[in-house]
Amino acid sequence: MRQPQVPSSAALVFDGAELLALDQRELPWRERRLSLRTADEVADAIRRLSIRGAPLIGVAAAYGIALELMRDSSEHALDRACQTLRSARPTAVNLAHAVDRVRAAAAAAPGPEMAAAALAEARAILGEEEAASDAIATAGANLLTGARTVLTHCNTGALAAPGRGTALAVIAELASLGQLERVIVTETRPLLQGARLTTYELARLSIPYELVVDAAAPGVIAGGGVDAVIVGCDRVAANGDVANKVGTYGLALAAGASEIPMIVAGPTSTIDFDCPAGTEIVIEERDPDEVRRAAGVPIAVQDTPSRNPAFDITPAALVTALVTEYGVAQPVTPETIAALAGPRR
Ligand code: MRU
Asked: Ligand 1 pocket check: which of 23, 27, 155 to mutate, most ligand atoms within 8 Å of Cβ?
């Protein structure tokens, strides 16, 4: 199997004293690492999307708590760090799951050992996510055997999740099997994660791709040249509804109309078994200025009223399959989602 040229450590490296994070706001123009030493600094990087992607923000937050406890090993510091990091972004449930796990591990340790316990838990989460990425790649490639052209949205590779990522890991696995001819990449306005980050990763993996504007995707699908759509996820509700990058719902509608598979890939850390349906998921509303600009350049009349929901909800009925490290939920129903809770819990 061909090894990815973007290593699993590409996005985050913990060197024992600080978290070195590739600043994803600056890619692909500049490869610069941020040195993060406190929970506040990690939370800021998550808020700004210097660190992004549901599984990766969970791992970063886990290390953020450990970093804070290395400076101040007190219950007050633990509480404050957890609160700051948990609220950095609202939609991806991996963030809350990781913070809750590290908090429990640290709180169970005697004072002087809290930082070590938090660090051990952060490392465990990282290891689990790396293993999940490999399992998702294999399961997704099996599911998509024969697919020659796939369309993907946003960025779901090694920049978004430990290991090779989620949906992009499936794509890389298909490519390594020699089946894939081309990936259609949507630019993913307003912050251009597809145009900036997915092209960056695919180019390094030597996987052929074509970039399209978001609005072109449904027409490209209807034109018959796409075998499957595959995306990641930020929170999957217990009924299988999926929150993912804004634009995913439109792609699911287009995939359904053309009767091609709409595949969602993600680790079970992205499933919120306590959330009954997509209607309960908080959708992050970001600064409207992100819409009034493209790559930092103003593109609308100054102060044009705008809205900036960062995610949307795709109903379970429009999702052909959810690929996780513990198997594939297909069809996506409350029962098939519940079956994934067993191995997770
Ligand atoms: O706002 P972002 O860039 O963090 O959004 C990321 C996505 O929507 C991804 O599809 C999702 O987190 C899955 S990442 C493996």
From this structure: 155
